[in-house]
Amino acid sequence: MTYETDKLVLIPDDIDLSQSPLAGHLDAETYVLGAFNPGLTRLPNGNLLMMVRIAEALRKPVFDEHVHAIRWDAEGEGRYVLDAWPLEHADTADPRKFTLHGGEWKVMALTSLSWLLPVELSADGLEVIALHYDKAIAPKSSLQCYGIEDARISHVNGTWLMTTCSVSPERHSTTLYSSDNALDWRFEGVVLDHQNKDMLIFEGLINGHYWAQTRPLGDLYFAYPPGSEWRAGPSINLAYSPDARFWKPVDKPGIRPHAATVATARMGGGAPPILTPEGWLTLWHGVEPHEIVGIYRTYWSLLDRDDPSVTLRTQHAPLLEANAYLTQPIDHQMYVRDVVFTTGIVDGGEHYIVASGEADLACRITHIPKSVFRS
């Protein structure tokens, strides 16, 4: 499906690394591997805010027969440092990470460290107004030592809540920030433990409780019965909370991978659910197996306003797919393809303004008519 208003609004070359939190820490050249997967919300002044994941990578990660990773040394001098791993112990086939051999568990390290940059956009989301480097969010504790990724922002009861993925050897967890203005953020700590990510807080209460979509991962899933409409694998689950800090999983399943399509062989949350006259509109991602990374597409479902475990309407056809035309000017910087990862939505009147990461490289804004979801 194509849309009249669909453009890249931020690319790696727009980022000034002299203002990065890493600047001056490393005796090695870094570059922007990607500026992508932006959380999205509307500011009090009417403009939009993207909270952009900046993946800052080493220009030459392999030297002296080792592959190197950037780490925030919270327990040392509070600096960014380089860790070196012997090449013979590492699988570097995926440009985003390398896997370390020799252990009983799957163990990996990243080729970049991510921090979050607030980028202010015009009210329609199509022009950059300001890059707020002074408000950037960077690792501050050992549980974030490999970076902070993929912000999702919800505005609930006058407070902005932002979930992020914090990466470390301690755990791969969901962490929460809160704000009174969507620019100055307070760290609230871990809210979901290891490998429970893609947490999206609903933009509104249900029966006096905060609700969220979650997505726990694992390497073991039990089979559905033969002939079931569902496929075993990662699914979008639900949880609720009295305060958005302490969460209880919901007994009923949420959105599950469908046996009728391989496009949801892996799936997870996208944009925080927003309330429409018909119910909660949720945008989520499905991944079709293909080569190393897979093909990422955006899908949508409409959920019951009182019981979000009930899906009222959905479609197997994708809402958004990767757009090679948009990335043609930055094709020389591409390292993955066939990836669109939607992470934000706001009301734009007759349309929704949807923010996505394109090719793990840039920020994409698409205006999607509301009529699309009524069909």
TrEMBL record:
Top-level taxon in the UniProt lineage: Bacteria
UniProt keywords, alphabetically: Glycosyltransferase, Hydrolase, Transferase
UniProt-listed InterPro entries: Glyco_hydro_beta-prop_sf, Mannoside_phosphorylase
Pfam families reported for this sequence: Glyco_hydro_130
GO MF, any single term: hydrolase activity
Keyword Hydrolase belongs to the record: yes
SUPFAM superfamilies: Arabinanase/levansucrase/invertase
Endpoints of the signal sequence: none
Family assignment from sequence similarity: Belongs to the glycosyl hydrolase 130 family.
The protein's name: Putative GH43/DUF377 family glycosyl hydrolase
